[in-house]
């Protein structure tokens, strides 16, 4: 899903002008963004033919914050160059650690209660019931 020079010229007005000494053209960055959208790979997985992945990511991030990507994808749809629509987003939550209390693990300390319940006050946290040994 790469666009050609001719297709790029039709939507070139949506992208900011390149100034200074730029090593990667806007066409290369746009093709790299389309590659990531099509293959769902990480930025580090972008082929070397597009250029340095960090440069591509930085420019894409700037474009996203400035609203450039919205204009570009709208122009790509309007010119019928690329038909892409992002409808859903997924978040992988397997890296979130659970606190030991959330797993149902037993507490490590035994509760020491005094004779006077008023002196103890309300419990500070919830204790799990423990089975007593049968004799």
Would you give an account of this structure?
The protein has about 140 residues and is mainly alpha-helical. The chain has helices spanning about 5-10, 25-40, 55-65, 70-80, 115-120. The protein has a domain at about 5-80. The chain contains 5 helices and no strands. Helix 2 (about 25-40) packs across helix 3 (about 55-65). Helix content is about 35%, strand content about 0%. The mean pLDDT is about 80. The chain is rod-shaped. About 10% of the residues are buried.
The gist of it:
With 135 residues, this protein is mostly helical. The protein has five helices and no strands.
Topology:
Blueprint: H1 5-11, H2 26-39, H3 53-66, H4 68-78, H5 117-120
Helix pairs in contact: 2-3
């Amino acid at each position: 899903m790469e666009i050609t020079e001719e297709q790029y010229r039709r939507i070139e007005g949506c992208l900011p002008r390149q100034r200074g000494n730029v090593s990667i053209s806007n066409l290369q960055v746009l093709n790299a963004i389309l590659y990531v959208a099509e293959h769902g790979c990480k930025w580090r997985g972008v082929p070397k033919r597009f250029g340095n992945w960090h440069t591509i990511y930085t420019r894409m991030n700037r474009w996203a914050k400035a609203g450039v990507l919205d204009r570009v994808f709208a122009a790509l749809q309007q010119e019928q160059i690329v038909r892409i629509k992002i409808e859903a987003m997924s978040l992988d939550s397997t890296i979130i650690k659970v606190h030991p209390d959330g797993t149902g693990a037993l507490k490590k300390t035994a509760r020491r209660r005094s004779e006077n319940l008023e002196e103890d006050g309300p419990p500070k946290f919830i204790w799990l019931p423990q089975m007593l040994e049968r004799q």
